[in-house]
Amino acid sequence: MKMLDKQIQDGILGLAVGDALGVPVEFRIRDSLKLEPVTGMRAYGTHHQPAGSWSDDTTMALCTLESLTKGVDYDDMMDRFCRWVDEGYMTPHGKLFDIGRTTLHALRLYSSGTPALQCGGTDVRDNGNGSLMRILPAVFYLRREYGANCMEKPEAFTLIHNLSRLTHGHEISQIACGLYCDMANELMNGKTMAEAVGHSALIKEHHYGVQEPFSPWLSRFEF
Predict the structure, then answer these.
(1) pTM over cut 0.90
(2) Closest to 174 measured CA to CA, from 140, 213, 125
(3) pLDDT truncated to tens, each residue of the chain (223 aa)?
(4) How far apart are CA 2 and CA 222, in angstroms?
(5) How distant, in Å, are the alpha carbons of 141, 142, 159, 207 from that of 153?
(6) Minimal CA–CA distance to 69: which of 162, 140, 165, 14?
(7) Which residues partner with 168 through β-bridges?
C-alpha cells in the first residue's frame, strides 16, 4: 500500500473510531465524564444508537472524501450531503439521527437553488464545528495533487475555505479549517504534535494575520 493510501485509511478509521466513542456521551459535561470516562464503545446514550455508530461528523467526511476522488465539485459534495439527509447515505445504519442547525439550513438553501458556495451561514452566530468535522479529506486531496508541501500552495487555502463555506461561511470557521488542515499535513510529514501546532501558529500570524477579512478574528485563536 502506498504511503498516502495508508495515511488516508488510518486517518478516516481514526476519525470514525473517535467519533463513535463520543456519540453516546455527546453534550455530557466534562465533570460527569471525569467521573465516568469513556474507555470503550458504548451502546445507546445520547442518541440511542448501537455501540460503534459514527455520527454526522464521519458521514460528512466520507461524503467529502468520496466526492474528492472525482475532483473538486462543490455541487457533487452538496448532493451527497443531501443524500445523507434524505436517504441515510454514508450513515452506519442507513438512517440520519443527528444534524446541526447551521448545516441543515445550508442544505435547505442548496435544495432551493442557492449556489453551493453561498449556502454556508456568514453570521458570527453561525459558527460551529460543522465544517471542521468533515475537512480532513481536503488534506488527502491536496497531498495527492501537490505533494507533502501542499499547504504552501495558495490553492490549498482556497479549497479548504470553499469546503467550509458549503455549510459554514464565517471567517472563524474558515480559519479553523485552515489551521486544522495545516496541522494535519505537518503530522503526515512526520512532525510531532508540538511542532505541528507551532507551525500552525506561524500560519495564523503570517498567512491569516495579513489578510482581510480574516485578521480581525484571529484573537479567537490562541496557541
Answers:
(1) yes
(2) 213
(3) 689 999 999 999 999 999 999 999 999 999 999 999 999 999 999 999 999 999 999 999 999 999 999 999 999 999 999 999 999 999 999 999 999 999 999 999 999 999 999 999 999 999 999 999 999 999 999 999 999 999 999 899 999 999 999 999 999 999 999 999 999 999 999 999 999 999 999 999 999 999 999 999 999 999 8
(4) 36
(5) 13, 9, 10, 12
(6) 140
(7) 121
Residue 188: count other Cβ atoms within 10 Å of its Cβ.
Answer: 20
What are 52's three cell numbers?
460503534
Q: Rounded distance, CA 87 to CA 81, Å?
A: 10
Q: Which residues fall within 8 angstroms of residue 27, CB to CB, at 6 or more apart?
A: 46
Element (H, E) at 84: helix 74-87
Which residue ranges form the domains of the chain, and what is each CATH number? 3-220 (1.10.4080.10)
